[in-house]
């Protein structure tokens, strides 16, 4: 390369300047924006403390892949006349208008966003859901409800059964990120897949996968299979992958024990960041649950990420399997939460704590170190909670 | 395009046949060695509205060497041909909006609308065969015009989309941010999509300021694109080389 570059030569600067002027003079008119997103949604109410559980609940950042926006508000909140306000992608317009008043007690209101160039539209359903905090004794996660993700139909997603019997979207995976690098992969070739015949009914299997030619190009050669309570932010999966896994969802019970069944079979060869084998090392898996305060000292909303989920100062209790022993037989675990801090009951009732359950087929997968083929399957996960009287 | 290739070959064969047929013509053949600085290698055919600004542009500065021959035809008209070895390059960093991009690796591809910055670099080594008509305004000053054929012996085209985001597939698809560092940005590499063969217009001027030494200027503009016709991942680009140099009369 050095042979061909003479950047220091004056003539290059002159030529570059001339070309730049020539080229600039022939730029066409700026094209209109073609995006049609709601970027944030905000609800302004007279008495936020009586309406929301947390002051920060009044504003939501809407992911580019979301078309459903849900505000969870206090059970006795009046939702018959609310005026959500939106910020949109540049140039876009929305109908009904931002700030218009609607009755949300009859269900969601549909908004249509149109791009500046008029060629693209997106529809969003916004719900405001009054919620009575239920303090469950035990939460069951059986991984029986899964389906192909509806937009691309390339990979599986899971639904959990909520205490009231309806299905929720509490489990997230990084499957959508894998899709970016391996668009040709079949659903069962993704890192996180269902296993029809698990310990009891269906289970979920996490497999560390090769990310193919794109992965090699980007020095992100593998994707550990993962599954966690939280959300996955595809927007930053490429630029800032450790922050794409947003671990934890608001949790209103005090967890006591974390139980379930697993199998773990490490892949044959652990490879380092550059894809070179690490001789003698056996891959390890992650099975843990973290209970933490979801606002920091300044009142800012917090989720934990791949780089601080086990080290944040906001962690209140952790239940972690110290060593996920390799086994091809379904093996039970029963881990007690170790509390580091007191739990504030008032804060607990106001959704001030979050719980993250994290499973990964390669512990160092976040650093792209692990063994391709490492496989962790889990089933019949229970969170046994204690009720403070 | 095949037709043009045939015409070029025919013109060349005719020229050589003519040269071979007549010993007097062979005697009158003159040839010179040439050394030049070449600027460029690649330019966009047009700048689309999607390109919103040029952050930096380096047309590259490379050498070319060659041996070229001139044979009299009639009066002041002569035929000119030769063989040149050229290095071409380009390094452009532009700001884009709604830029259609497709990144391909092996069987995998990722495409969509990109808003951000795109860096494109290319280097090429080319062997060029010009076939030109020359008109001598005076013994010192000559103009040439004709066609060239070029073969790339080495071709590299690579770059990355950075500091921006992709809307996957369509403008309402998933938004995927791309960072600045390798691994966080969207790298691409299109060496294999470049044509081996190029052809186009070749014009030149010579100024013979002494018995042996002269100065020349040459401009080649490719009619064929830089890429194969089924390739649409980046905007259409064409080979264009500008050369300034000195010539030495061997005979």
Overall spatial form of chain A: globular
Largest sheet of chain B: 8 strands, antiparallel, barrel
CA(first)-CA(last) distance of chain A: 73 Å
Tell me the structural class of chain A. Answer: mainly beta
What would you note in describing this structure?
- Chain A has two domains: about 90 residues, Sandwich (Immunoglobulin-like), CATH 2.60.40.2340; about 250 residues, Jelly Rolls (Sandwich), CATH 2.60.120.
- The N terminus of chain A is likely disordered.
- In chain A, strands 12, 17, 18, 19, 22, 23, 25 and 26 form an eight-stranded antiparallel beta sheet that branches. In chain A, strands 8, 13, 14, 20, 24 and 28 form a six-stranded antiparallel beta sheet that branches. Chain A has a four-stranded mixed beta sheet with strand order 3-7-6-5, with no helix packed on it.
- Chain A is mainly beta and about 400 residues long.
- Chain A starts with 9 loop residues before the first helix and ends with a strand.
- In chain A, strand 10 and strand 11 form a beta hairpin.
- Chain A contains five helices and 28 strands.
- Chain B has a single domain, classed as Porin (Beta Barrel), CATH 2.40.160.20.
- In chain B, about 10% of the residues lie in helices and about 65% in strands.
- Chain B is built from two helices and 13 strands.
- Chain B is elongated, with a radius of gyration of 22 Å.
- The two termini of chain B are about 35 Å apart.
- The mean pLDDT of chain B is about 85.
- Chains A and B meet through helix 1, helix 3 and helix 4 of A and strand 3, strand 5, strand 6, strand 7 and strand 8 of B.
Keywords, separated by commas or semicolons:
heterodimer; A: 389 residues; mainly beta; Immunoglobulin-like; Jelly Rolls; 2 domains; eight-stranded antiparallel β-sheet; six-stranded antiparallel β-sheet; 5 helices; 10% helix; 37% strand; globular; B: 251 residues; Porin; eight-stranded antiparallel barrel; two-stranded antiparallel ribbon; elongated
